[in-house]
Amino acid sequence: MPRASLLPSLVLTSLVPLTGFSQPQAPKPREAVLAALDSHAYDLAKDGRSFLIDEARKSNYFLLGELHGDNEIPDLLHAMWPGLWKNGYRYVAAEISPWTADRLEAQPDGSAPPVEGLWTRKQADDLHSAAERGAHILWGCDMEEIHPEYLIRELAGLNPDNASLKQMDAITKNGYQRSMASKLLALAKTSRPANDTIVNDISLSQCLLATLQIDADRADPAAKMSAQQARELLMKTQFLEHFRAHIHAERADKVLLRFGRNHLHRGFDARGISTLGNFVAEFAISRGKSVFNVGAFGAGGKATLMGETFSMDETQYELTFALLAGEAHHAATVFDLRPLRPLLHAIPQEKRTPLESNLIYWSDAYDALICYKNVTPLSD
Fold first, then answer.
1. Domains of the chain listed by start with CATH number
2. How far, CA to CA in Å, does 247 sit from each of 26, 89, 240, 242, 330?
């Protein structure tokens, strides 16, 4: 399959050359803002981790806007999960399909086809380190971005006499490519399988239809926005399906959400369509619950995803990232952005510098940001 074609939709960071910190620095914001940043910065390896776990304890939904293809986020979750479990977190909603979540979590013996992408089996196994045997923890809340052919194969096996599914299986016998999506979608709409199955709380046939529709739209330059909107809607509806299946009023179970950073903003991100984080924040308010969201960014190093290695120096296209990288005193520094909000919003709009406007964007979007000075490519 053409892995490079998947990269733009999976990697939510700019693929820019690694140049360290040699780029020109933006003018610094007002002293009060800098002082607030300095007094609310933590070493992730020490007091920063305690800060995040304490905020998770006070919240019902902990949203982690991650990097992709790195060791740092899996290592962070490995270190934090015991503390999150202790504080009531029992589920992880993830940027993977329900099918992939099921294979990672429920079939550890290797009997299923191998899966690859944003999660590894080791990461899924980490979730069960404190749980009882057979616990269902991982919620898949996305399309099947990498292996739609496996969903086709499974449905075709359930419906051996279905001519459309048989044809779809034949088309994808050597793997899936996005260029196949429109033809497969037309066949899927006529297949009407007599036998469906629920995988990770979600209908397998419905997950396949949604995947093919989104990929068919992605292949059409005129329909890319509708594809993005449909994917966000799918994430929300699948999250709700999982929620209804597992969260009960008599228990105070909490949920960690792990998605790419662009998905978990409060409000709208710069693209105007990534609203999952805002949806969860408003959903929490409607239930009298609370949310804490933290995003991560790279100030150097590299990441690897689907065989592609790319720079993780994100300081060159976000003024806030460049500022925070310059103020970071640790390999990984957590900045609590909430104290900045009243200071920044007190500056009249016409007097805000570009950096201050960008700081408002990020401090309104995220409660905290983690600056990783050197990101390393995922090794497992």
1. 1-88+261-380 (3.40.1660.10), 89-251 (no CATH)
2. 46, 11, 10, 8, 38
